[in-house]
Each structure stands twice: as structure tokens, then as C-alpha cells.
Write a structure and sequence with these properties.
The chain is mostly helical. Helices cover 79% and strands 0% of the residues. Keywords: Membrane, Transmembrane, Transmembrane helix.
């Protein structure tokens, strides 16, 4: 398939960079900034840890509701309008949180933030399958997902600066500024995103599928039909289980590694915060790097490499020996942090095709969500029993080792 514009000038890259801004706003600001804002907000509103946890749960509940509805809404409104509307909801709800005066309004508004995040993110991942062919799809997804890492760095630098200059109410300014930024990105998305290359008179960007990812032999060359629905559903469940293992283990690490550094390894909070900033900085490159790798060598091989590295990172975090193990754990986790969502969004397009990618990505995201709900509960229980997080990190290492095996059993896309 020939492109009507050179790849360096193809409008798909405008869609890709705009998508990175969308991820920066809907997930980076809408979700990953919460941990930075909670301490001062909790003190100002007299929130206990249980209510802080419920606020976070409310956001993810809203996100999961949006995942269930995103496919239907996108079919009715189109991806561009759905993404812009979702981002507008994210921004406005965050602005209103900055004006809230108690737990209940914050919980309700942050639930709405979660709904908006899901409505923006799920259709965005589906756009990748429309705008990019298989040999460029992973790289494009990686660039989009890197917006998360940029947001972690930004929130980590901006929010403490605001808090220092505004006293105990700095969190209100933080929510206001982050919300207005999300609204600005909503306007940008509505202006620049397009639902399909034909809207710009283009073909999808990319060349022929790599030989290693294509069926070979006379019989395969003659086969032109799509896989049966039952086979596709089975593959999506297979991918979903793998995604669940990523969700459960990555959220445990992201939730408890700083606490482990402070409480178990006796680092100061500033030093532990710098560890986490390193994760944010390195994670900017994780999506593009492993997306490119999966384009060149296949989704299956890319995920095997990533889950193997996750296993090493979690095992190093569980060791009580040299501090070098902790440094290595943080660096390895940062390098691979957003690689699995990148590869998954590309893999769904490979297996299901562009027209069914949004609903399929929504399905596997439900598995991912279940993992994120289960993981912290189990890890917290293990930490209460043992007095540290070593057992939890060993369990994470075992689960990602299982993910390596499950990934090796994936069938190749037709």
C-alpha cells in the first residue's frame, strides 16, 4: 500500500503527537498527579487514609465504566469528538475539585475525572489501528503512551513548587492549573485529531507487514479469510489475562516502592522521591523503544523481553542486599514502565483489525483493571503479615514470569 505523502510529513505523526498530549492530560494529569496532591488536600479537608483510598478507587471505577461504554459512544460520535469530550470532562472536574470543601464532592468529581479519562484514552488507542499499519503501529503507540512519563515529571516538579508558595491551600491551585491544562488539550485534540486517514485524503502510514509476523507458505499465502470469531475472542481473553498480570504487578510496584524505600530501607522522603522521578524520566522512552522493538521483531517477542525485565526488577526490589539492587530495580522498571500498554494497543489492531480495535482494547482493559484492583489489596495484606514488602515483590516476580510463559503461547496474528 502506497502512502500519498512521505512518512516524515504524514499527518499520522500529527495525530500521534496530539495523542501523546491526550495521554499526558487524561492519564498523566488526571490520574498520576493524585499522589502528589493528596497529602496537602487530605490535611486541608481532614481526610483519613481510608477516604483517600476511596477517592482513588472512585476514579478507577469511573474509568472502568467508561471502558464499557467507550466503544458504543465512539461509534455514535466518532473518536475525535469522544476524545475531546472526555478530556473536557477531565479538565472541568479537576477544576471543580479545586473548589470542593469535603470528601463527598471530591469523590463524585474524581469519579467523573475517571469517566473522562476512559472516554479519552480508549478511543485514542483505537485510532492507532486506523492511522498506522503493522510495521509502524507499535512505535506510534509508544510515542503516545510516553505522555504519561512527561506528566509524572511535570507533576513531581510543579506541585511541590506550588505547595511551597501557597501554604496549606496550594492543592487547590494545583487542581485548577492541571484542570485548565486538560481543557486546553481537549481543544487541541478537537482541532488536530482525525478519525481516519481518508479524512485527510491519505492512506495509513507504513509498509507491508514484516515477514516474521506474516503467514508463510503456499497455503497461508492463499488464505485471505479473517480468523473465526471464536478464535479472536479466545485470543483477546489470552491477551487480557497477560494484561491483568501486568496491571496487578505494576500497580503494586508503583504504589509501594517509595513506601518500601522509606519504611524498610530507611531512605529519606526526598531521596525516595528522586528515585521515583528517575522512573518518570526513564519511562518517557519506554513506550517508543519497545513499540519500535515490537514493530521489528513482533509483539510476542517484545512482550517476552519486557516481562522478563519486569521479573528482574521485582526480584531486585525484594532483595535486602546491596543498594545497587534497588538502583537497578528502579532503573529497569522505569525503562519498561509503559511498554506493555504500548504493545497491547498495537497487538489488538494486529489481531482484530482497525474497525474492531476500540471494543477489543476496551475488553482487555477490563482485565487490566481487575489486576489493578486486586494487586494492591493482596500486596498490602502480605506486607501486614510480614512487616515488609519483600513477599509482595517476590509474588510480582512470579506473576510476570508466568506472563512470559503465557506470552510465548500466543498465536501469531493472521
Amino acid at each position: 500500500m502506497q502512502n500519498k505523502a512521505a512518512p516524515s510529513r504524514h499527518y499520522g505523526w500529527t495525530v500521534c503527537l496530539t495523542g501523546a498530549a491526550v495521554v499526558f492530560a487524561c492519564l498523566g494529569l488526571g490520574r498520576f498527579s493524585l499522589g502528589m496532591l493528596l497529602p496537602s488536600m487530605g490535611a486541608s479537608l481532614s481526610l483519613d487514609y481510608g477516604r483517600m483510598g476511596l477517592i482513588s478507587t472512585g476514579n478507577f471505577t469511573g474509568y472502568m465504566l467508561a471502558v464499557l461504554l467507550a466503544g458504543t459512544i465512539t461509534q455514535s460520535l466518532g473518536a475525535r469528538r469522544t476524545i475531546a469530550a472526555g478530556l473536557a470532562l477531565v479538565g472541568l472536574s479537576m477544576v471543580l475539585i479545586g473548589r470542593a470543601d469535603g470528601f463527598e464532592p471530591v469523590l463524585l468529581l474524581y469519579f467523573a475525572t475517571g469517566v473522562g479519562s476512559g472516554l479519552a484514552n480508549v478511543p485514542l488507542m483505537g485510532l492507532i489501528s486506523h492511522w498506522f499499519l503493522r510495521d509502524t503501529r507499535g512505535r506510534a503507540a509508544g510515542i503516545m503512551v510516553s505522555g504519561n512519563g512527561v506528566a509524572i515529571i511535570f507533576a513531581g516538579l510543579f506541585i511541590p513548587w506550588v505547595n511551597q508558595g501557597s501554604g496549606g491551600e496550594g492543592w487547590r491551585i494545583g487542581w485548577l492549573v492541571l484542570g485548565l491544562m486538560a481543557v486546553a488539550v481537549a481543544v487541541l485534540a478537537g482541532w488536530l485529531l482525525r478519525n481516519h486517514p481518508r479524512d485527510k485524503g491519505l492512506e495509513p502510514l507504513g509498509g507491508a507487514a514484516p515477514a516474521s509476523a506474516s503467514p508463510t507458505g503456499p497455503a497461508s499465502a492463499a488464505r485471505t479469510h479473517q480468523p473465526e470469531r471464536g478464535s479472536q475472542r479466545g485470543t483477546m481473553v489470552h491477551l487480557g489475562i497477560i494484561y491483568l498480570l501486568f496491571g496487578a504487578t505494576s500497580v503494586v510496584y508503583a504504589t509501594f516502592i517509595v513506601t518500601a524505600l522509606v519504611d524498610v530501607h530507611h531512605y529519606g522522603e526526598d531521596a525516595a522521591g528522586r528515585f521515583w522521578a528517575v522512573v518518570g524520566g526513564l519511562s518517557v522512552f519506554s513506550g517508543p523503544l519497545f513499540g519500535w522493538l515490537s514493530d521489528r521483531l513482533g509483539r510476542r517477542f517484545g512482550m517476552i523481553v519486557v516481562f522478563s525485565l519486569f521479573t528482574v526488577a521485582y526480584a531486585f526490589a525484594a532483595l535486602n542486599g546491596s543498594p545497587l539492587f534497588l538502583y537497578a530495580s528502579v532503573v529497569i522498571f522505569g525503562v519498561v514502565a509503559w511498554s506493555i500498554p504500548t504493545i497491547m494497543s498495537a497487538a489488538v489492531g494486529d489481531y482484530m483489525g482497525p474497525n474492531r480495535a476500540v471494543k477489543a482494547f476496551g475488553l482487555i482493559t477490563l482485565f487490566f483493571g481487575a489486576g489493578q484492583i486486586i494487586g494492591p489489596v493482596v500486596a498490602g495484606y502480605l506486607a501486614d503479615l510480614s512487616g515488609d514488602f519483600n513477599a509482595a515483590f517476590w509474588l510480582c516476580a512470579a506473576l510476570t514470569a508466568c506472563a512470559v510463559v503465557l506470552t510465548a503461547l500466543l498465536r501469531q496474528p493472521e
